[in-house]
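Final report, closing paragraph on structural work. Over the funding period we assembled a curated collection of sequence-structure pairs, and we close with a single example.
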Amino acid sequence: MNKFLFSLLLVLSGTITMNANAGVLVVEGKYQQKNLFIQNGFSSNGVGFCAFQVKVNGQITTDEVNSSAFEIDFTPFKFKAGDKITVEIEHKDGCIPKILNPEALKPKPTFDVVSISINNDAMLSWTTKNEVGSLPFVIEQFKWNKWVYVGEINGEGTPKANDYKFKVVAHSGENKFRVKQVGFASLPRFSDVVVYNSLMERPSYQIDKDLINFNNETSYEVYDFYGNVVKKGFGATCDINSLKKGKYYLCYDNAVTEIEKKK
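Its predicted structure, as stored:
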C-alpha cells in the first residue's frame, strides 16, 4: 500500500499548505509569545492516538502527546519574540492532527513609531521599532469624510529601527496621513496622524454631457444614492456615459458634492 504525503506549512504571509510523508506535520512561523494547541484524534486503526512525537527546531519536546488534545510549550526553548520556529509533529499513517490556533505563529502588528513626517514634496517618511514578523504598512489619507487607502509597502518585520518612505498625492488645503498594520485576527495598529498643508487650489469641474471635466488632475470617486462606488480614478476627466440618469455624489480633491446626470 502506497503512503501519501500530507503536511501543513504555515508561511509568514499567513498562507497554509499541506505536505507530509509517513506522518510528519510541519508548521513554520515566528514566535509570537504563544503556544500551539493540537487536537489529536485516534489513529486510523483505532489503536492509540494519531501524533506520537513533536520536534521544535529539530529538538524533541517533552510535551505529553498521548491524549486527545495537547499543548506544544515553547517556554523551555527560551525563544525571543520574532525568532523563527519550525515544528514537526510526527503522526501515524491515515490520520493528521489538527492545529487549533495556527495564528499563534503568524505576525501581528507590534510596531512603535519613532518618528513620522512629510516634506514639501509630499514624501511621507516614518521610522519604526519593535516589529515582530513582516506585515505590510498600509498608507491612508483622510478625505471625503473618511480614511482612504493610498497604497502599501512591506514591513521589514525586525525589532531594530526600520526606515520607510512613500510618495503620496496631496489635495488642496490640509492633508492628513497615517500608516497602519493589520495582523491575523487582531485589531489594526495605527501611527499618529501627520498633517501637511498644500498651497494648491482646489480643482473646479464642469459636466459636459457624458464627461466630468476637471481643470486639473485629481483623484475622484462617484457614488450612487445607495452609497455604491460607480466610478473611481485619477485624472482630468471622468466618463459617466455608462451611468443612468439621476443624482450622484462626486468626491474629488478634498470635496464632496452632489451632481446630476440629465441624460
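The first strand starts at residue 8 and ends at 10. The chain has three domains: 8-105, 112-198, 205-261. We thank the funder for supporting this effort.
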